[in-house]
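Suppose you are handed a protein chain with no further information: no name, no annotation, nothing but its sequence. What can you learn? This example shows the usual starting point.
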Amino acid sequence: MWSLAVHYNMSKVSAFFRSFGKSIVVFFKRKGVKENIKFVTILILIYVIITLALRFLPFLQVYNTYTIRTDSMEPVLNVGDIIIVEDISPNDIVEGDIVAFYVDVTSDGVDDVIIHYIDEIIQYDEDTLVFKSKPEISNLQDRWVIEEQDIIGIYKYQVDGFGKILLFLTSWVGRIVLLVDIVVVWIVVDFLFPKKENDSTKRQN
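A reasonable first move is to predict its three-dimensional structure. Written in structure tokens, the prediction is:
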């Protein structure tokens, strides 16, 4: 029964895309070469502008921003929250601060960004500090040791939930959906507000 339902739903999806594809073909056939080039150019420009806006928002020039992807700091920091992080000297960090830092969590040679509490500050030697962190969901310290050069900055504030939208828009699926939405809006506007023919064209007819 489940497989039949899936087959039925996939058939509806397939029919929708076939219908949508035909609408696109009809739309482009109605337009001249110049209009099609203009449309594609505008589409590319909108895509580039939105992509650059997501990467280089004004406040990104002053602060580091990160999107929470796991539940280790819930309910303080939730999945999808955008976190604003400000630079801080390791000497100014105190226990209990929420800090962003680099650590190779999966031991694959690539550093990940973690945002956790600083649970313990250790004077490694006369001029060097090391830190131990912990998540919100556990009283146990994380297994790694954080060195001064691993510190990115201290948590300043957050934008609740907006990161889910950014994560979606910066994914390939989100980009495709964005382009499809632009095409749909263009077609609807063209259908509702068709361009009027010039008087000279009408006289020729």
